[in-house]
Protein backbone atom coordinates (compact mmCIF):
# COMPACT_ATOMS: atom_id res chain seq x y z
CA UNK A 1 0.00 0.00 0.00
CA UNK A 2 1.56 3.31 -1.05
CA UNK A 3 1.79 5.80 1.83
CA UNK A 4 1.59 8.99 -0.24
CA UNK A 5 -1.73 8.34 -2.01
CA UNK A 6 -5.27 7.72 -0.80
CA UNK A 7 -6.91 4.50 -1.87
CA UNK A 8 -9.51 2.00 -0.67
CA UNK A 9 -9.20 -1.76 -0.55
CA UNK A 10 -12.01 -4.28 -0.17
CA UNK A 11 -10.73 -6.97 2.20
CA UNK A 12 -12.00 -10.52 2.55
CA UNK A 13 -14.31 -9.35 5.34
CA UNK A 14 -15.75 -6.62 3.13
CA UNK A 15 -14.26 -3.69 5.12
CA UNK A 16 -12.99 -0.48 3.51
CA UNK A 17 -9.60 1.10 4.31
CA UNK A 18 -9.01 4.79 3.60
CA UNK A 19 -5.66 6.55 4.00
CA UNK A 20 -5.61 10.28 4.71
CA UNK A 21 -2.85 12.74 5.61
CA UNK A 22 -2.83 14.68 8.89
CA UNK A 23 0.06 16.97 9.90
CA UNK A 24 2.07 15.45 7.03
CA UNK A 25 1.59 11.88 8.34
CA UNK A 26 -0.44 9.19 6.48
CA UNK A 27 -3.13 7.55 8.64
CA UNK A 28 -5.24 4.55 7.57
CA UNK A 29 -8.77 4.12 8.94
CA UNK A 30 -11.15 1.17 8.49
CA UNK A 31 -14.81 1.53 7.49
CA UNK A 32 -17.72 -0.59 6.29
CA UNK A 33 -18.27 -0.81 2.53
CA UNK A 34 -21.22 1.60 2.65
CA UNK A 35 -19.46 4.26 4.76
CA UNK A 36 -20.04 7.92 3.90
CA UNK A 37 -18.35 11.28 4.43
CA UNK A 38 -20.32 11.66 7.68
CA UNK A 39 -18.82 8.36 8.90
CA UNK A 40 -15.34 9.69 8.10
CA UNK A 41 -15.98 12.78 10.25
CA UNK A 42 -17.20 10.64 13.17
CA UNK A 43 -14.20 8.27 12.86
CA UNK A 44 -11.73 11.18 12.84
CA UNK A 45 -13.41 12.58 15.95
CA UNK A 46 -13.27 9.31 17.91
CA UNK A 47 -9.95 7.84 16.70
CA UNK A 48 -7.86 10.99 16.11
CA UNK A 49 -9.48 13.29 18.74
CA UNK A 50 -10.15 16.01 16.15
CA UNK A 51 -13.69 17.26 16.90
CA UNK A 52 -16.02 18.11 13.97
CA UNK A 53 -15.79 21.84 14.78
CA UNK A 54 -12.04 21.67 14.02
CA UNK A 55 -12.20 19.40 10.96
CA UNK A 56 -11.42 20.52 7.41
CA UNK A 57 -10.92 17.95 4.62
CA UNK A 58 -9.09 19.11 1.48
CA UNK A 59 -10.13 16.53 -1.14
CA UNK A 60 -8.50 16.81 -4.55
CA UNK A 61 -9.31 16.82 -7.34
CA UNK A 62 -12.78 18.42 -7.71
CA UNK A 63 -14.34 18.09 -4.25
CA UNK A 64 -12.10 20.75 -2.71
CA UNK A 65 -12.60 21.86 0.92
CA UNK A 66 -15.21 19.94 2.91
CA UNK A 67 -16.04 20.59 6.56
CA UNK A 68 -18.88 19.63 8.92
CA UNK A 69 -21.77 20.11 8.56
CA UNK A 70 -21.23 18.86 5.00
CA UNK A 71 -23.38 20.02 2.11
CA UNK A 72 -23.66 16.35 1.14
CA UNK A 73 -22.73 14.08 4.09
CA UNK A 74 -23.83 10.98 2.11
CA UNK A 75 -20.89 11.01 -0.32
CA UNK A 76 -19.64 7.36 -0.36
CA UNK A 77 -16.06 6.93 0.84
CA UNK A 78 -15.47 4.46 -1.98
CA UNK A 79 -15.62 7.49 -4.33
CA UNK A 80 -12.42 8.79 -2.70
CA UNK A 81 -10.35 5.90 -4.08
CA UNK A 82 -8.50 8.03 -6.64
CA UNK A 83 -8.43 11.27 -4.60
CA UNK A 84 -6.03 12.77 -2.08
CA UNK A 85 -7.54 13.56 1.32
CA UNK A 86 -5.72 16.00 3.58
CA UNK A 87 -7.15 16.47 7.10
CA UNK A 88 -6.52 19.92 8.57
CA UNK A 89 -7.50 20.52 12.16
CA UNK A 90 -6.16 20.62 15.70
CA UNK A 91 -6.76 17.82 18.18
CA UNK A 92 -8.54 18.43 21.47
CA UNK A 93 -5.17 18.26 23.25
CA UNK A 94 -3.61 20.83 20.90
CA UNK A 95 -6.54 23.23 21.37
CA UNK A 96 -6.36 22.84 25.16
CA UNK A 97 -2.63 23.56 25.11
CA UNK A 98 -3.17 26.67 22.95
CA UNK A 99 -5.95 27.96 25.22
CA UNK A 100 -3.75 27.38 28.28
CA UNK A 101 -0.93 29.45 26.79
CA UNK A 102 -3.38 32.23 25.87
CA UNK A 103 -4.85 32.27 29.39
CA UNK A 104 -1.38 32.41 30.91
CA UNK A 105 -0.44 35.32 28.65
CA UNK A 106 -3.67 37.17 29.49
CA UNK A 107 -3.25 36.80 33.27
CA UNK A 108 -2.23 40.10 34.92
CA UNK A 109 1.35 40.22 36.09
CA UNK A 110 2.95 42.55 38.57
CA UNK A 111 5.42 44.86 36.89
CA UNK A 112 8.05 46.91 38.62
CA UNK A 113 8.78 50.54 37.73
CA UNK A 114 10.56 51.14 34.43
CA UNK A 115 14.01 52.56 35.01
CA UNK A 116 15.35 55.27 32.77
CA UNK A 117 17.77 54.06 30.13
CA UNK A 118 21.41 55.05 30.51
CA UNK A 119 22.43 57.40 27.68
CA UNK A 120 25.08 56.18 25.26
CA UNK A 121 26.94 58.03 22.58
CA UNK A 122 27.03 55.51 19.77
CA UNK A 123 23.49 54.07 19.70
CA UNK A 124 20.10 55.56 18.85
CA UNK A 125 18.27 54.57 22.03
CA UNK A 126 15.13 56.45 21.08
CA UNK A 127 14.87 54.31 17.96
CA UNK A 128 15.48 51.13 19.99
CA UNK A 129 12.63 51.96 22.35
CA UNK A 130 10.32 52.99 19.51
CA UNK A 131 11.00 49.69 17.73
CA UNK A 132 10.01 47.88 20.94
CA UNK A 133 6.75 49.85 21.03
CA UNK A 134 5.80 50.12 17.35
CA UNK A 135 5.96 46.55 16.09
CA UNK A 136 4.02 43.27 15.81
CA UNK A 137 3.92 42.14 19.44
CA UNK A 138 2.78 38.55 18.84
CA UNK A 139 3.51 36.32 15.83
CA UNK A 140 1.39 33.21 15.38
CA UNK A 141 1.55 30.60 12.57
CA UNK A 142 -1.33 28.17 12.02
CA UNK A 143 -0.45 25.07 14.10
CA UNK A 144 -2.52 22.63 12.03
CA UNK A 145 -0.73 23.33 8.71
CA UNK A 146 2.57 21.61 7.78
CA UNK A 147 5.83 23.11 9.13
CA UNK A 148 4.40 25.93 11.30
CA UNK A 149 7.95 26.77 12.39
CA UNK A 150 8.73 27.85 8.80
CA UNK A 151 5.71 30.17 8.81
CA UNK A 152 6.94 31.62 12.10
CA UNK A 153 10.33 32.38 10.55
CA UNK A 154 8.54 34.08 7.64
CA UNK A 155 6.53 36.26 10.06
CA UNK A 156 9.74 37.08 11.97
CA UNK A 157 11.39 38.16 8.72
CA UNK A 158 8.51 40.55 8.04
CA UNK A 159 8.60 41.94 11.59
CA UNK A 160 12.38 42.48 11.44
CA UNK A 161 12.44 43.86 7.86
CA UNK A 162 14.32 47.17 8.01
CA UNK A 163 11.80 48.92 5.74
CA UNK A 164 8.79 47.63 7.70
CA UNK A 165 10.37 48.62 11.03
CA UNK A 166 11.01 52.15 9.77
CA UNK A 167 7.42 52.51 8.49
CA UNK A 168 6.03 51.21 11.79
CA UNK A 169 7.99 53.88 13.68
CA UNK A 170 7.04 56.64 11.25
CA UNK A 171 3.30 55.96 11.46
CA UNK A 172 3.36 54.72 15.08
CA UNK A 173 1.76 51.37 14.17
CA UNK A 174 1.47 48.92 17.09
CA UNK A 175 -0.15 45.62 16.05
CA UNK A 176 -1.02 43.09 18.79
CA UNK A 177 -1.16 40.01 16.54
CA UNK A 178 0.32 39.15 13.11
CA UNK A 179 -0.74 35.70 11.89
CA UNK A 180 -0.89 33.65 8.70
CA UNK A 181 -4.03 33.09 6.65
CA UNK A 182 -5.41 29.67 5.75
CA UNK A 183 -5.45 29.66 1.90
CA UNK A 184 -8.34 27.18 1.79
CA UNK A 185 -10.56 29.58 3.73
CA UNK A 186 -9.96 32.49 1.36
CA UNK A 187 -9.88 30.90 -2.10
CA UNK A 188 -12.80 30.77 -4.51
CA UNK A 189 -13.06 30.17 -8.24
CA UNK A 190 -13.18 33.93 -8.72
CA UNK A 191 -10.48 35.28 -6.38
CA UNK A 192 -7.81 34.75 -3.75
CA UNK A 193 -7.70 37.09 -0.76
CA UNK A 194 -4.16 38.15 0.15
CA UNK A 195 -4.69 39.77 3.57
CA UNK A 196 -7.15 40.90 6.23
CA UNK A 197 -7.10 43.65 8.87
CA UNK A 198 -9.36 43.50 11.93
CA UNK A 199 -10.35 46.56 13.98
CA UNK A 200 -7.70 48.92 12.57
CA UNK A 201 -4.72 46.71 13.26
CA UNK A 202 -5.85 44.58 16.20
CA UNK A 203 -5.15 41.49 14.07
CA UNK A 204 -3.51 41.29 10.63
CA UNK A 205 -3.69 38.05 8.59
CA UNK A 206 -1.39 37.42 5.62
CA UNK A 207 -1.58 34.76 2.89
CA UNK A 208 1.90 33.24 3.23
CA UNK A 209 1.40 29.86 1.55
CA UNK A 210 0.56 28.73 -1.95
CA UNK A 211 -2.90 27.23 -2.51
CA UNK A 212 -1.55 23.67 -2.19
CA UNK A 213 0.18 24.40 1.17
CA UNK A 214 3.45 23.03 -0.26
CA UNK A 215 5.29 26.31 -0.69
CA UNK A 216 5.38 30.01 0.13
CA UNK A 217 4.53 33.05 -1.93
CA UNK A 218 7.04 35.69 -3.07
CA UNK A 219 8.37 37.67 -0.11
CA UNK A 220 8.07 41.10 -1.77
CA UNK A 221 4.47 40.31 -2.75
CA UNK A 222 3.58 39.46 0.85
CA UNK A 223 5.45 42.52 2.13
CA UNK A 224 3.44 44.79 -0.17
CA UNK A 225 0.26 43.10 1.05
CA UNK A 226 1.39 43.92 4.58
CA UNK A 227 1.82 47.58 3.56
CA UNK A 228 -1.75 47.47 2.26
CA UNK A 229 -3.08 46.03 5.53
CA UNK A 230 -1.11 48.57 7.60
CA UNK A 231 -2.83 51.35 5.65
CA UNK A 232 -6.13 49.91 6.94
CA UNK A 233 -4.94 50.77 10.47
CA UNK A 234 -5.78 54.36 9.51
CA UNK A 235 -8.37 54.11 6.74
CA UNK A 236 -10.93 51.41 6.00
CA UNK A 237 -12.56 52.03 2.59
CA UNK A 238 -10.58 51.58 -0.63
CA UNK A 239 -10.92 55.20 -1.69
CA UNK A 240 -8.29 57.64 -2.96
CA UNK A 241 -7.25 58.63 0.58
CA UNK A 242 -6.54 54.99 1.38
CA UNK A 243 -4.56 54.32 -1.80
CA UNK A 244 -2.46 57.46 -1.31
CA UNK A 245 -1.50 56.25 2.17
CA UNK A 246 -0.90 52.68 0.97
CA UNK A 247 1.48 53.78 -1.80
CA UNK A 248 3.21 56.16 0.61
CA UNK A 249 3.93 53.26 2.99
CA UNK A 250 5.17 51.10 0.09
CA UNK A 251 7.57 53.86 -0.95
CA UNK A 252 8.84 54.28 2.61
CA UNK A 253 9.41 50.54 3.02
CA UNK A 254 11.36 50.31 -0.26
CA UNK A 255 13.36 53.44 0.59
CA UNK A 256 14.37 52.25 4.07
CA UNK A 257 15.08 48.63 3.14
CA UNK A 258 18.85 48.97 3.21
CA UNK A 259 19.32 45.25 2.43
CA UNK A 260 17.77 45.82 -1.00
CA UNK A 261 19.57 49.11 -1.55
CA UNK A 262 16.29 51.04 -1.35
CA UNK A 263 15.07 49.69 -4.70
CA UNK A 264 11.93 47.70 -5.39
CA UNK A 265 12.26 44.36 -7.17
CA UNK A 266 12.04 44.61 -10.94
CA UNK A 267 12.16 48.43 -10.75
CA UNK A 268 8.37 48.45 -10.38
CA UNK A 269 6.96 51.23 -8.27
CA UNK A 270 4.12 49.16 -6.81
CA UNK A 271 2.97 45.55 -6.74
CA UNK A 272 -0.47 45.02 -8.23
CA UNK A 273 -2.33 41.70 -7.68
CA UNK A 274 -3.55 39.67 -10.66
CA UNK A 275 -7.21 39.53 -11.65
CA UNK A 276 -7.69 36.41 -9.50
CA UNK A 277 -6.10 38.04 -6.44
CA UNK A 278 -7.52 40.76 -4.21
CA UNK A 279 -5.77 42.41 -1.29
CA UNK A 280 -8.92 42.30 0.86
CA UNK A 281 -12.39 43.78 1.05
CA UNK A 282 -11.43 46.80 3.14
CA UNK A 283 -10.88 47.11 6.88
CA UNK A 284 -13.54 45.44 9.05
CA UNK A 285 -14.54 45.64 12.70
CA UNK A 286 -16.28 43.76 15.49
CA UNK A 287 -16.56 40.17 16.68
CA UNK A 288 -13.80 37.80 17.75
CA UNK A 289 -10.73 36.58 15.89
CA UNK A 290 -10.70 32.80 15.35
CA UNK A 291 -7.27 31.24 14.82
CA UNK A 292 -7.23 29.95 11.25
CA UNK A 293 -10.71 31.27 10.54
CA UNK A 294 -11.84 32.83 7.32
CA UNK A 295 -12.92 36.35 6.42
CA UNK A 296 -16.35 37.80 7.00
CA UNK A 297 -18.64 35.41 8.83
CA UNK A 298 -15.93 32.79 9.33
CA UNK A 299 -13.45 35.04 11.07
CA UNK A 300 -15.99 37.06 13.01
CA UNK A 301 -17.80 35.09 15.71
CA UNK A 302 -20.53 37.23 17.22
CA UNK A 303 -20.08 37.77 20.94
CA UNK A 304 -23.86 38.17 21.18
CA UNK A 305 -24.23 34.51 20.33
CA UNK A 306 -22.62 33.37 23.60
CA UNK A 307 -19.70 30.96 23.32
CA UNK A 308 -16.73 31.44 21.00
CA UNK A 309 -15.19 28.54 19.06
CA UNK A 310 -12.26 26.69 20.61
CA UNK A 311 -8.92 28.19 19.67
CA UNK A 312 -10.29 31.75 19.41
CA UNK A 313 -8.68 34.89 20.78
CA UNK A 314 -10.83 37.53 22.42
CA UNK A 315 -10.00 41.20 22.17
CA UNK A 316 -8.92 41.22 25.82
CA UNK A 317 -6.62 38.24 25.31
CA UNK A 318 -5.04 39.69 22.18
CA UNK A 319 -4.38 43.05 23.83
CA UNK A 320 -3.15 41.43 27.06
CA UNK A 321 -0.68 39.31 25.14
CA UNK A 322 0.47 42.36 23.17
CA UNK A 323 0.95 44.37 26.36
CA UNK A 324 3.09 41.60 27.82
CA UNK A 325 5.24 41.38 24.69
CA UNK A 326 5.53 45.20 24.54
CA UNK A 327 6.74 45.33 28.16
CA UNK A 328 9.24 42.55 27.45
CA UNK A 329 10.60 44.38 24.40
CA UNK A 330 10.82 47.65 26.33
CA UNK A 331 12.86 45.99 29.10
CA UNK A 332 15.16 44.43 26.51
CA UNK A 333 15.64 47.78 24.78
CA UNK A 334 16.47 49.47 28.09
CA UNK A 335 18.87 46.66 28.98
CA UNK A 336 20.72 47.15 25.69
CA UNK A 337 20.90 50.88 26.33
CA UNK A 338 22.27 50.34 29.83
CA UNK A 339 24.88 47.81 28.68
CA UNK A 340 26.00 50.10 25.87
CA UNK A 341 26.30 53.07 28.22
CA UNK A 342 28.37 51.18 30.80
CA UNK A 343 30.81 50.20 28.08
CA UNK A 344 31.73 53.83 27.23
CA UNK A 345 35.18 55.10 28.27
Structural write-up:
GO terms for molecular function: proteasome binding. Pfam families: WLM. This is Zinc metallo protein-like proteinase. The strands form 4 sheets. The chain has a 5-stranded mixed sheet with strand order 2-1-5-3-4, with helices on one face. Strands 6-7-10-9 form a 4-stranded mixed sheet, sandwiched between helices. α3 packs across α5, α3 packs antiparallel against α8 and α5 packs across α7. The protein is elongated and about 70 Å long. The chain contains 8 helices and 13 strands. It is of the alpha/beta class. It has 2 domains: 73 residues, Roll (Ubiquitin-like (UB roll)), CATH 3.10.20.90; 251 residues, no CATH class.
Summarize the SSE layout with pairings.
Elements: E1 16-22, E2 25-31, H1 37-48, E3 56-60, E4 64-66, E5 84-88, H2 92-106, H3 125-133, E6 136-140, H4 148-160, H5 162-171, E7 175-180, E8 192-193, E9 195-198, E10 203-206, H6 219-231, H7 240-256, E11 277-278, E12 289-290, E13 312-313, H8 315-342
Parallel strand pairs: 1-5, 6-7, 7-10, 8-11
Antiparallel strand pairs: 1-2, 3-4, 3-5, 9-10, 12-13
Helix pairs in contact: 2-8, 3-5, 3-8, 5-7, 6-7
Highlighted features:
WLM_dom, Ubiquitin-like (UB roll), five-stranded mixed β-sheet, single chain, 8 helices, Ubiquitin-like_domsf, Zinc metallo protein-like proteinase, alpha/beta
The count of DSSP E runs of length 2 or more, i.e. the number of strands, is 13
Biggest β-sheet description = 5 strands, mixed
- Neighbour order of strands in the largest sheet: 2-1-5-3-4
- Per DSSP, the total helix count is 8
Class by SSE composition = alpha/beta
Q: Report, as a whole number of angstroms, the end-to-end distance.
A: 71 Å
What's the oligomerization state? single chain
Overall pLDDT: 75
